[in-house]
Design goal:
The complex is a heterodimer of chains A (301) and B (311). Chain A is mainly α. Chain A contains twelve helices and two strands, in the order H-H-H-H-H-E-E-H-H-H-H-H-H-H. The chains are: A mainly alpha (301), B mainly alpha (311).
């Protein structure tokens, strides 16, 4: 069987872009608040549904729907932190309690979504039937849709913007400072609380964007986020928790591994549903070999 | 009536699961987010062995042993991991395991599963007799697990487990290998979950991947958190309450007209319940009983005597 390697590379870039956008919030909130937020999966799902709804109700186009989804989910993310996790942390909850609470919150969100929109899958193609997103081109031997190009563009834009935010702006420096040493950040006059709030807002908003892209690429249903949360954990851990640059590299490594892994699986005659197992392998190997992940490569001095 | 009997069997099976998670999380502080994986291993081991005619008690024991072996296997990397890493790793392990039994239809029928013969089939017995026999079998296993858990909890071993939970460094400094304790607890907990899985498979008389969703793990977590971590009576109480609640909402579904689909509402309430318990009663309904030993008692007595003298 001839494998179109160029296409596999391109698909890896798409997968990596999606994981990057989705995992940024996960890794940053993980680093700042000190626990993995499993409800992040539901932020992804919620974003997709919000974009779908505003598109269906008010006829918004993809860019506006994306903005609305970003803002609304961001607010939900902030409220989740403020309403549940911050209160728990203040009462001295352990990391295990926080993780359980995040899973519980995920259930509340997921099944509320199920109650509001139903469990039948929805498709963006039905609300944006004439959009140019779906048009296919062939670049050389690679099949490309506009949606995928936008996805890659969004990931690159995110990487560049985040780089400038993290290195040049006050809030970005505050995020990095709080992530690496909260006490010292507090002593330097940084309002840690506000930094964490803003990060939760941003992270959930970005998750929503990933959700819209994922939903547009496949379908929207209450498990949209859960379907891709484990690879995102692999990205967050491989990249080093709380480390944005590590996450960029890790997202594309996981993307490459998944897409080349699928080729290998098919060649070995195994089911391609094991795709998610590849991320799991990366996760386990990272945890055993180097739990700090790629962060060790991105540490200065 | 049959409905109540069925409920009692479920309480028993989930009681075993809750006890096993209570050992791992309550006493040893291990965040096992993949309980369902060991439940699955027990169920599939039982199903596969009973198909080739192995007697039921051997199937159950084999399920426990295979499950314990996987517990040990998982604990090898897990020993070095922080609580959050361990949680993610075990959760993923469960998902992968479900994926494997789902995709590899040669193992046990893939998505459609396979049927399992009941452990003790009484010829000519009605369904009701079958359920009663199951109650006997399940509660016998529950009793054994409960006694083991209770003996462990009040032994020097149990005190070391709690010490590891409270302060790993301090326990290590006192010469207790936290790695070994964690591995042993994970093995024991997995063995119990394996037995519960075997009982579940033979009671329902089929196994299929859809029975082993991550939701099962979190149902058990609710039981332990609600009932009271590090209290074996609490774990059983939690199993009773949560199973009743689960069934109650299923019945309510038939009699009430709600604005929200009850099958969604049930999970929303489950989630809200955990959050409320964590917020307002993190010690659960039944508190962990303080450690009592002869030495501690005598120290206490001396202290109170000393105070009496001083005043």
């Amino acid at each position: 069987m001839a494998v179109n390697w160029a296409q596999v590379f391109f698909n890896s870039a798409i997968t990596g872009s999606l994981y990057l956008i989705g995992a940024v919030g996960l890794t940053l909130t993980y680093g700042l608040s000190g626990f993995p937020n499993f409800a992040h999966a539901e932020f992804i799902t919620l974003g997709a549904y919000i974009a779908y709804s505003v598109a269906a109700q008010f006829g918004l186009g993809p860019p506006l729907a994306l903005v609305v989804a970003f803002l609304c989910t961001g607010i939900v993310g902030f409220l989740c932190y403020r309403g549940v996790f911050q209160v728990l942390a203040k009462r001295g909850a352990t990391i295990i309690h926080l993780m359980v609470a995040s899973i519980a919150l995920g259930f509340v969100l997921r099944y509320s979504i199920g109650a509001a929109w139903g469990w039948e899958p929805l498709y963006f193609a039905t609300v944006w039937p004439t959009s140019s997103l779906w048009s296919r081109h062939d670049i050389g031997s690679i099949a490309v849709t506009n949606l995928w190009l936008w996805l890659i563009f969004a990931a690159v834009a995110l990487a560049v913007t985040m780089h400038f935010v993290l290195t040049k702006t006050k809030i970005g420096k505050a995020i990095r400072a709080t992530s690496s040493n909260p006490e010292l950040a507090l002593a330097s006059g940084i309002n840690i609380q506000r930094v964490i709030w803003i990060t939760w807002f941003l992270g959930a908003g970005l998750a929503a964007i990933a959700g819209v892209f994922r939903g547009a690429d496949t379908r929207i249903w209450p498990m949209t986020g859960w379907d891709i949360i484990l690879p995102m954990f692999a990205v967050a851990i491989l990249g080093g928790i709380g480390n944005f640059y590590g996450a960029i590299a890790a997202a594309f490594i996981v993307g490459l591994a998944e897409n080349f892994g699928v080729v290998a699986l098919v060649a070995l005659g195994l089911s391609s549903t094991y795709r998610i197992g590849i991320a799991f392998l990366i996760l386990i190997i990272t945890l055993i070999v180097k739990p700090q992940g790629l962060a060790i490569l991105f540490r200065r001095g | 009536m049959l409905y109540v009997l069925d409920l009692i069997v479920f309480i028993g099976i989930f009681g075993i699961l809750a006890l096993s998670l209570n050992l791992e999380f309550g006493f040893a502080g291990l965040a096992n987010f993949g309980k369902v994986a060991f439940f699955l291993i027990g169920a599939y081991t039982y199903a596969l062995l009973s198909q080739i005619g192995v007697p039921f008690y051997l199937c159950l024991i084999a399920g426990a042993m295979v499950s314990a072996a996987f517990g040990l296997l998982i604990s090898l990397p897990a020993l070095r991991l922080r609580a959050d890493y361990l949680a993610i790793a075990i959760l993923t392990f469960g998902e992968i395991l479900r994926l494997i039994v789902k995709s590899e239809s040669w193992i046990a029928g893939g998505d459609w599963g396979i049927s399992v013969s009941p452990a003790i089939a009484i010829s000519g017995g009605s369904h009701r007799v079958d359920v009663l026999v199951n109650i006997g079998l399940v509660y016998f296993c529950l009793l054994i697990c409960f006694v083991i858990a209770q003996l462990l909890a009040n032994s020097p071993y149990g005190r070391v487990m709690r010490a590891v939970r409270e302060d790993e460094m301090a326990a290590e400094a006192l010469g207790k290998s936290r790695a070994r304790y964690k591995a042993q607890v994970l093995m024991l907990g997995s063995a119990m979950a394996g037995i519960a899985g075997g009982l579940y498979a033979q009671y329902l008389q089929y196994v299929l991947p859809g029975m082993f969703m991550p939701m099962v793990t979190f149902t058990v977590w609710i039981m332990v958190l609600l009932g009271g971590p590090a209290n074996n009576w609490g774990a059983v109480l939690g199993a009773v309450l949560v199973t009743l609640f689960d069934r109650g909402t299923n019945i309510a579904k038939d009699y009430l007209t709600l604005p929200i689909d009850p099958s969604n509402l049930q999970y929303i309430l489950f989630g809200a319940l955990i959050i409320l318990v964590l917020l307002y009663r993190p010690q659960g309904l039944l508190k962990e009983s303080p450690i009592k030993t002869k030495a501690l008692e005598s120290v206490k007595r001396e202290r109170s005597v000393g105070k009496g003298k001083g005043s």
